[in-house]
Amino acid sequence: MEKEQLNGLNAIELKGINKSFGSVVANKNIDLTVRKGEILALLGENGSGKTTLMNMLSGIYRPDSGSVFVYGQEVHIYTPQDALNLGIGMIHQHYKLVDNLSAAENIVLGTKTKKQSMSQLAKNIEQLSLHFGLNIDPNKKIYDMSVSEKQTVEIVKVLYRGAKILVLDEPTAVLTPQESKKLFAIITKMKEEGNSIIIITHKLNEVMEVSDRVSVLRKGECVATVETKKSSAEQLTELMVGRAVDLSIERPETFKSDPVLEIVRLGVRNDEGVEMLKDVNFDLRSGEILGVAGVAGSGQKELCEALAGLQKVEKGAILYYKENIVGRTPDEIIRLGISMSFVPEDRLGMGLVASMGMTDNMLLKTYKQSRGGFVKRSPARLKAKALIERLDIITPGTETPVSKLSGGNVQKVLLGREIESQPNVLITAYPVRGLDINSAYTIYDLLNEQKMKGVAILFIGEDLDVLLELCDRIMVLYDGQVQDILQADQVTKEQIGLLMTGQKPRELKEVR
Amino acid sequence: MDLNYLISFIYAVIVAGTPLLLATLGEIITQKAGNLNLGVEGMMYIGVASGFAVAYYTKNPIFFILAAILSGALAAFLYALLTVTLKANQTVTGLALSIFGTGFANFVGETITNTSPTRTAVLDGKLMSYFKPINIPLLSDLPILGRLLFQYNIFVYLAVLIALVTGYFLFNDIRGLNLRAVGENAAAADASGIDVFKYKYLAICFGGALSGLAGAYISVITAGGTWTANSVSGLGWISVALVIFAGWNPYKAIFGSAIFGALRVLRFYLPRQSFNLPNSLYGALPFLVTALVIIFTSIFNSKEIQQPAGCGVNYDREER
Ligand SMILES: Nc1ncnc2c1ncn2[C@@H]1O[C@H](COP(=O)(O)OP(=O)(O)O)[C@@H](O)[C@H]1O
Ligand SMILES: [Mg+2]
User: Fold this and answer.
1) ipTM for this prediction
2) B310 Cα–ligand 1 center, Å
3) Among A113, B182, B205, B235, which residue has the least CB neighbours within 10 Å?
4) In the structure, what pLDDT confidence band is assigned to residue B154 with cuts at 50, 70 and 90?
């Protein structure tokens, strides 16, 4: 009797779920409960099986064994349609939208909506959006949208289907802090209306802020479920990693030489002719990490690409040991010892070939140096093996296509390969995007290790706390211009935040 | 140039373009579901042979049409089984289908002609009479317009009707929207609750049915009811090119097939003395034009007129 009542409270109950892919056990005997009207955070390192578990709720995968209960009823979810019929909607980490259709078309896709005029549909969508405080242009094509707009479409899409149980897979990995705030307001409102939400995120502050309970996965097993209020970031990290982790980031002292790289009055226009960098001046010394802060789209990507020779420079110079390298090909720049890794917003596609294994991806950067017409694979394979060891990359082998690895592991491969080429200058953009705490700290350690070897590092980041702790100096970009360059140990997060929104340093002083 | 000459040119263009239109419409729908079926040529041959054989032995026009349509659809079903369910490579499967279809037609045709006392196979005259140019009292007798609009065989009107219906379906019906989503991004369509497999199977079989119908056309119109070896002779390949030329748009396919039809009959209507080009060059014209179209579309890189993004890639839900 009592048990039945409890069941009535649960939106979802998973019992003894198992799932393997070939020899990889992704989920092992998992029990998980989501109550009505709560936000459950799902926490776990990259590759711990969070996405796999949620994909079984949304009908993408089928469990090998185990049972699923929705509102107390045992169900079998064979297809995404089954999940939608049960009121389960999932917002996937890589959005599942049709690029050349409009928002409205994506939203009605696959629904039983009787043919209605597009304007009527647009009205319905507007109503729905208004209710949750969402902002959406029904007629805009997906390919014209920013990531956060795309996410909004995904959210409206599941709401339109009447989802009562919402699964969000790393929704904030690609959002700005402001956009994340908005998202949390929406899901909190949904929760207050009695819906249930499962959210996967690696950002512990978000977990603490928004969730009611937290379930932690480790290596495919559910190791604990705790009340958020009775827990702490430290405890959660320990549960996740399996041992205590020091959450402070080191900033080792190093000897800093003359500038290795001097950027002088750099100006860049994008393909549409819009000025993306204006009169950018800064220098980068060996043995230092120069952080770059800025709202997304302030010129970070263009800066990286200009330095790597991928973007046409319109004005100014890039001096590498006093020699101007503007106009050199990317290949020449790599050989000079300048290495760039960029993790794009969708975290796919840039720098690695998804269908190739680690060995071949290592070869991509070095095959030109081998003599004769043949490529030697064995040294590359050894390097790949070494990387797997050093960075704890979880993969069945060096020849497994990197698309099969979990997101965090892919990023470790990307950055690891750049470091393997022993560069003098390392440019890295968003290297910890979407990474779990432990992997992120592995990356920070890696960067510090390079710094102590005397490498000059340009670190383009999102998380201001990390920038402040890790970097020696911080450069703030706003609208393609350098607002200021500051000593990291002499500024506060608020000051950088202000600079990022375009306030001038002088105004800043007055504030102070 | 005198008017009668022009009118008979246009008439010939439409008659030559109709089988292209039918096969192209089928391939557009197939590709919109994300499958590149290079078996059009083969499926047309299968339609030609099955239709001809059934017409030859039953003398029944309905059975003739049904045989052509169903055999085309069956061939497409095999292609769907291999690519959609068994995830075989689409290009290889399509090419194999084309090779098989050609051989199948030769086999059937030779068997029929060899068993016939006259060593030729000709279809029943009564059956053929169903596919003569139509004759609507008054309308067909109008000067100029009558010949331009109201004197074609029924296939022509049927083909245009199918084009209009498929166009409407694709762009105005929610199932058409679903179909486009399947071809663009099968994973997204799947996650939206669309039955990707059902859509793919239906679209591919529809494509085969239209290729089969185009085969029926070739039997009774192009070949005039007499068994002719190699009667399809590349029309299937031109249709595949025409899909690109038409920008995956059934409405534009109507005009595209007229243009390609014109390219096919051009050599009979251009005065020999001023344009003395080798015949094979005329045969190559449709492909030359398609190459130009591909070059232009990639220069302007329109986001709207593109091959469906998922075309050629098999979908597996658990794959990532
Ligand atoms: N479709 C798939 N094919 C093969 N392996 C997969 C597939 N999906 C997930 N895996 C493997 O299962 C494990 C768990 O992955 P995933 O659920 O994505 O982890 P998380 O979301 O926690 O980062 C990983 O080792 C991953 O490589
Ligand atoms: Mg994941």
Assistant:
1) 0.89
2) 23
3) A113
4) very high
Pocket of ligand 1 (CB under 6 A): A 21, 24, 26, 44, 46-52, 394, 404-406; B 318, 320
Q: Which atom of ligand 1 is nearest to the CA of A170?
A: 21
Q: Are A228 and A276 in the same domain?
A: no
CA–CA separation, A105 and A120 (whole Å): 12
**Nearest residue, CB atoms, A96 vs list B172, B173, B187:** B187
Q: Over the stretch A407-438, which tens digit does the pLDDT of each residue have?
A: 778 888 888 888 888 889 999 988 888 788 88
Residue A300 · residue A429 · CB < 8 Å: yes
Fold that domain B17-254+306-319 belongs to in CATH: ABC transporter involved in vitamin B12 uptake, BtuC (1.10.3470)
Question: Which pTM was predicted?
Answer: 0.84
Residue spans of chain A under pLDDT 50: 1-7, 508-512
Is A150 domain-assigned?
yes
| Full domain range(s) for residue A54 | 3-241
The H-assigned helical ranges of chain B are: 3-32, 40-58, 61-80, 90-115, 125-129, 145-149, 154-172, 174-184, 186-191, 196-217, 235-245, 250-269, 279-300
Contacts of B181 in chain A (CB under 8 A): 98, 101, 109-110
Chain B residues within 8 A of A101 when measuring between CB atoms: 177, 180-181, 184
Give A27-44 as a DSSP string: EEEEEEEEETT-EEEEEE
Q: Same structural domain for residues A291 and A206? A: no
